[in-house]
Amino acid sequence: MSDAIERTKELESSSTTNSKELVSSSTSSSSVSSTLNASDQKINELTKAMEDMRSNATKMKEELSRREEENRKLLEISLEQAQKREEEARKREANLQELV
């Protein structure tokens, strides 16, 4: 009978140890799962931030190209106007030379 009691105590002890291991394993799995979820969330946030930065960079390049084109056109117009003024000044000078 003493053997049966000892065996029962051993089984209870073993059962308690196994339960603790399961709880520890479960906690460990939960912790790992939580860490993985946090990592996935951080990766998603960083990916979105990178996509936003690329989108902003593309928009900035487009704006820069638009402004460069606008400035090029304004420079062409200014050059044409300066050439016309220069030609008019030459004509006036030639007319003055004829009068003298």
UniProtKB/TrEMBL annotation:
UniProt region (Disordered), positions on chain: 1-71
Feature: compositional bias, Polar residues: 13-22
Record's compositionally biased regions (Low complexity): 23-35
Biased composition (Basic and acidic residues): 1-12, 42-71
Protein name per its UniProtKB record: Uncharacterized protein LOC105157602
Organism: Sesamum indicum (Oriental sesame)
Gene, per the UniProt record: LOC105157602
